[in-house]
């Protein structure tokens, strides 16, 4: 061996050095992420190299400053888009839009155009970029148009960048777009969102000019939306008709272990899950989505991903893409991603906390209190505007998150209650209370905390704690709207937040100008206005336990706040005279457009519960009842002398009869439908079908704990939540 080794010209040290050189030549994971980020997005830098200087400046004026689009540059932009997309492997393009289903829609067209004599060219014109004509008859319109009226239009939104979506055999250029009827009425979620952004800018910019402290010339809302979700093994998913049909389990006995040990939250992420997360993140990075955080959530099988702040219009687009990527990527790992607000009864549901703020085009966050929040009158002015907005429009905030699925989460002991209130934190509450009393100044402030060991650093302490029970909480430099559902598009909630704050700022500016016209100094006028606004609307501020029964009583009976316990309670308020006036005044939604959204939300509620009711009936009749009868038949083979068999047989027989009786009631309620109008049907679902479903489930879940597990036809909670 020694002789053979000596005959080889092999230097171990040299080989090691060569290996190190080769290894360092490869990009590191961080370099890969940096290189990957926005690689499938047509960024401004990409466009700048493909367009004339004048055309690019014109497009930037539209995208960044909201100036009117110059149609003469459309061909130039289209050519740049097509060239870039084809370099990325795209063969088709689509106007990607957000209809009133809450999801996204796309119709793909090829760049290919036959030129005769067996020749084809790849083309894409400015006309094709600006407008496309999809069939509008198959999308919900809420009465804005009859079913036989099919014409609708998608129109390019230049304020959101185009991007590439990849699949196994190619790629597609996606052009963010709005969707409108033949008469120009909004049939989508993006159009009113863009209108609300403009309304906010129009309301807030004059205030900034008056204060004179900002370098910004334009204001927009910014948003970071957390996304909670569950992952279960794919094999279990397809054996559960309820998950396939409705996205949640309609049956399932509580396992011996749920989240009681509190060992899942922030716990070590299982290897397969972490591999899935990493894969999904790389795809999200390529789409320019700035995901920052990933972790286990509270419930077993529950997880979260969260991006950092973005322009709210782009954040809404990115949220839709994030849900799509999470769902499709999970399948590659033998998993299914569940985004229903409450896929498993008895454990935590999933939300989509929307962290909302306002920012100028100079990068200034208008809700940043700074080091001396008690002296920052600009911050206190805008915070007062939010207090006023939330107090006056509790109904609208509750309605914009109303759905049959969110009803299973809201109002429970694991999610913000159906009562809308604001948490300010002890420091900010103290500042406002001092202003209200005329005392002024700042009582509570941050400091440093020692941790009891010399080796540990002293850490900065926030002046106030967090409150996870608040549906609308101030969290340092933003407000966190925690009531948004995990499966929901965030476009409508953002639209509502933009609208109510724009309206509130407009009202306060009118009041402030009146004081200034009366000869009052700006600082004095601002201090008085903030003080009076807080006194008028302080009933909306609550820093205590939002889950407690005492708060429900206090909110309703002492403070006069709304407690809209179900989606239908909230939807009754959506198309109210107050809200018609609000949206109309701000030119966000006209009367018909708002009424249409209410009608569609009623319709979706009805259809959601109707599907669940019929699926419950099917599973109980075709799966659970036969399993119970089969077990009873098996027990008959046990010797008659067995007291255990006799006792079990009696119990199972009794529960089987109860299941049969409950099933008959559900069958009758499913068939009844409740009336001809969608509102009547929706209320029938809430008041009759849901209670009948709960009764069937109660009995079935007891049977699950009685029947031989070999005969039970459904994967259990124990399997779905803990087998990863």
TrEMBL record:
- GO terms (BP aspect): glutamine biosynthetic process
Name the enzyme's class: ligase
Pfam family membership, one? Gln-synt_C-ter
Question: Keywords in UniProt for this one?
Answer: Ligase
Q: What is its EC number?
A: 6.3.1.2
Q: Which domain of life is it from?
A: Bacteria
- Mitochondrion among keywords: no
The residue ranges of the GS beta-grasp domain are 91-184
Q: Name one GO molecular function term.
A: glutamine synthetase activity
Please report the stretch or stretches of sequence annotated as the GS catalytic domain: 189-624
Q: Which family does it belong to?
A: Belongs to the glutamine synthetase family.
**Protein name stated in the entry:** Glutamine synthetase
């Amino acid at each position: 061996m020694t002789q053979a080794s000596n005959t080889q010209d092999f230097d171990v040290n040299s080989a090691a050095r060569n290996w190190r050189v080769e290894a360092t030549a490869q990009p590191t994971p961080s370099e890969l992420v940096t290189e990957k980020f926005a690689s499938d997005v047509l960024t401004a830098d990409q466009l700048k190299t493909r367009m004339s200087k004048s055309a690019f400046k014109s497009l930037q004026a539209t995208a960044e400053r909201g100036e009117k689009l110059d149609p003469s540059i459309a061909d130039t932009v289209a050519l740049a888009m097509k060239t870039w997309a084809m370099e990325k492997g795209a063969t088709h393009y689509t106007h990607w839009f957000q209809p009133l289903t809450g999801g996204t829609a796309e119709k793909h067209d090829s760049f290919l155009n036959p030129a005769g004599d067996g020749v084809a060219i790849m083309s894409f014109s400015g006309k094709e970029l600006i407008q496309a004509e999809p069939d509008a008859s198959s999308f919900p319109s809420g009465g804005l148009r009859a079913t036989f009226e099919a014409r609708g239009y998608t129109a390019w939104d230049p304020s959101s960048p185009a991007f590439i979506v990849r699949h196994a055999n190619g790629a597609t250029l996606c052009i963010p777009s709005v969707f409108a009827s033949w008469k120009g009425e909004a049939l989508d979620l993006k159009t009113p969102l863009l209108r609300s952004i403009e309304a906010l800018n129009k309301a807030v910019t004059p205030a900034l000019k008056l204060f004179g402290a900002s370098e910004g010339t334009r204001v927009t809302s910014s948003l970071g939306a957390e996304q909670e979700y569950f992952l279960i093994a794919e094999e279990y998913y397809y054996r559960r008709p309820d998950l396939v049909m409705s996205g949640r389990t309609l049956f399932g006995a509580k396992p011996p272990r749920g989240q009681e040990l509190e060992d899942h939250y922030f716990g070590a992420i299982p290897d397969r899950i972490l591999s899935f997360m990493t894969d999904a993140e790389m795809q999200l990075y390529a789409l320019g989505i700035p995901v920052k955080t990933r972790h286990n959530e509270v419930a077993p099988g529950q997880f979260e991903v969260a991006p950092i702040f973005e322009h709210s219009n782009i954040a809404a687009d990115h949220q839709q893409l994030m849900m799509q990527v999470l769902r499709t990527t999970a399948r590659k790992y033998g998993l299914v991603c569940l985004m229903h607000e409450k896929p498993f009864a008895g454990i935590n549901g999933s939300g989509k906390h929307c962290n909302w703020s306002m920012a100028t085009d100079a990068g200034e966050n208008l809700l940043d209190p700074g080091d001396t929040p008690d002296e920052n009158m600009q911050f206190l002015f805008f915070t007062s505007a939010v207090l006023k907005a939330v107090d006056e429009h509790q109904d609208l905030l509750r309605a914009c998150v109303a759905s049959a699925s969110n009803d299973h989460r809201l109002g429970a002991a694991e999610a913000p209650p159906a009562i809308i209130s604001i948490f300010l934190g002890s420091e900010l509450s103290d500042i406002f209370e001092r202003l209200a009393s005329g005392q002024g100044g700042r009582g509570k402030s941050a400091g440093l905390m020692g941790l009891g060991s010399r080796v540990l650093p002293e850490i900065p302490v926030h002046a106030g704690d967090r409150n996870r029970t608040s549906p609308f909480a101030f969290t340092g430099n933003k407000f966190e709207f925690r009531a948004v559902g995990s499966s929901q598009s965030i476009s409508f909630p953002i639209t509502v937040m933009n609208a109510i704050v724009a309206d509130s700022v407009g009202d306060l500016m009118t009041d402030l100008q009146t004081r200034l016209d009366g000869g009052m100094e700006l600082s004095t006028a601002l201090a008085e206005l903030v003080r009076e606004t807080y006194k008028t609307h302080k009933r909306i501020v609550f820093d205590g336990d939002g889950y407690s029964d005492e708060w429900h009583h206090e909110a309703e009976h002492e403070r006069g706040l709304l407690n809209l316990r179900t989606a239908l309670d909230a939807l009754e308020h959506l198309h109210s005279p107050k809200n018609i006036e609000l949206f109309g005044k701000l030119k966000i939604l006209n009367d018909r457009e708002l009424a249409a959204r209410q009608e569609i939300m009623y319709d979706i509620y009805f259809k959601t519960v109707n599907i669940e009711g019929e699926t419950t009936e099917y599973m109980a009749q075709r799966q659970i009842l036969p399993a119970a009868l089969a077990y009873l038949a098996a027990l008959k083979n046990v010797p008659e002398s067995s007291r255990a068999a006799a006792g079990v047989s009696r119990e199972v027989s009794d529960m089987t009869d109860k299941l049969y009786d409950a099933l008959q009631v559900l069958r009758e309620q499913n068939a009844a439908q409740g009336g001809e109008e969608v509102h009547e049907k929706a209320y029938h679902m809430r008041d009759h079908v849901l209670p009948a479903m709960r009764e069937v489930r109660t009995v079935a879940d007891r049977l699950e704990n009685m029947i031989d597990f070999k005969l039970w036809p459904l994967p259990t909670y124990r399997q779905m939540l803990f087998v990863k």
